[in-house]
Target: 4,4'-diapophytoene synthase
Amino acid sequence: MTKNYTPSLESDYRQCQSLIRQHSKSFYYAFSTLPETDANAVYAVYAFCRMADDAIDQAEDAETGIANLRQLEDGLDAFVAGNMPQAPMWRALGDVVDRYDIDESMLYAQIRGQEMDVHFEQPKDMDDLIHYSSHVAGSVGKLLLPILSDDLSQERKANAEKLGIAMQITNILRDIGEDMREHGRVYIPASILNDYGCSVAQLEERKVDQAFMDAWEHLAREAEVLYEDFRKEILHYKEEAQLPLLVSLSVYREILNEVRSSNYDCFSKRNAVSMTRKMKIRNEESQFLKNIKDA
Model:
């Protein structure tokens, strides 16, 4: 543990670490190899985003969800004003803000994104979906940027946001069944479903046919273009962050291939990347970095 952490702060970070280890094995696998201070910062940002997500998804009804978000936003208002709420996540996040040039407006964007789920409407088109995804996931990319890179230019921020959007689209494609079953939400834009002749009723029936696969693949290609574009960004990041970031990107991208391998069954199972495949991805990305640096 970094020597200028207090024992209390060490404990706060460990609680944040336990959240990411429990809820996002892919992110933890990728980012746990960062230098300790940077890894802890990632854990704290994740813990805030997890709290915002749980405020809605674990609420019994919309009214409770909104009340949970208002309580979180009240805590954020106090945090930004310098009145630290006395809870592990806030204390850890306070240390992160002291160490890095965090854009606190992205914490508010995260809350606004969760509000969209309370008043949920199926996206009409890709613009709607990108608007939503930029709040709930693009904001995460911008929050992590100053932890992982010393270049905080507008170009870097825009591309970090796009990576978050790609990951959110991947989540949507993985969780179609879960989102419908547990939350009554369909995130695939209506225009895309209509273009391929796939209806919401068909999704409710868990019918996997060519129309569904074509609509699914349309959205998957949108994510894969963003993933591929981001690879060109990697040398703008700290050297010690380059491999963890590429591993994170490629493990998430591999979720799409897992769905394909299961014949597009994203209704009855949660497709995941095996540890064996994750280890292979790490080796592949390590070789990729070596090649582009030797070129």
User: Anything to note?
Assistant: The chain has two domains: 1-119, 162-295.
